[in-house]
Amino acid sequence: MPSEQQNNHMLIIEDDKGRREFNLDGPVYSIGRDPRCDVRLVSQFVSRRHATLVQLPKEDGSYYYRIVDGNLRGQGSANGLLVNGRKLQSHDLQNSDEVIFGPDVRAIYYLLKREQIQTVPPDEFDITLISPGMIDNREDDDHLLDDDDDDGGDTASS
Question: Are the C-beta atoms of 114 and 101 separated by less than 8 Å?
């Protein structure tokens, strides 16, 4: 049976508020301290618009996310981004990438891959085999009932 790969993108945030999970499927996400951000970071050490996630297409029809420092207008954050220990302006996220926004504020990106099995409609020549033990044999039951009623009354003879 043919199968196709289905990807789920997830961002796990750890900050002063604790640990939160975000399923990603939208085209753009703003990340920062501002309450209007799509992914809000709770810490005095991060910028109001610290980073932006942008969904970009792949050749196979799937997509990936790129994280960019600051907002889409080119205004960077005060502290920048550390991705896997390196200070970067932007980065195409890969499974298990760690992004540090400031002290005790980080995100881990996960690309969860799963196989989705495509089902096909049943074949018109599909045959279901039945075992004889699966059939209720009514003739045997009728025979047992006939034996009980067969004597037609009192069988004791003189």
Answer: no
The rounded distance, in Å, linking the Cα atoms of 48 and 41 is: 9
What is the SS3 assignment for 54? strand
Tokens of 18: 């604790």
Helix/strand/coil for 70: coil
pLDDT in tens, 109-129: 999 886 555 555 666 666 666
Nearest to 79 by CA among 104, 96, 97, 56: 104
Q: What DSSP designation does 52 have? A: E
Candidates 3.30.450.150, 2.60.120.10, 2.60.200.20, 3.40.50.2000; CATH matching 3-117: 2.60.200.20
The SS3 call for residue 134 is helix
The tens digit of pLDDT for each residue in 95-108 reads 999 999 999 999 99
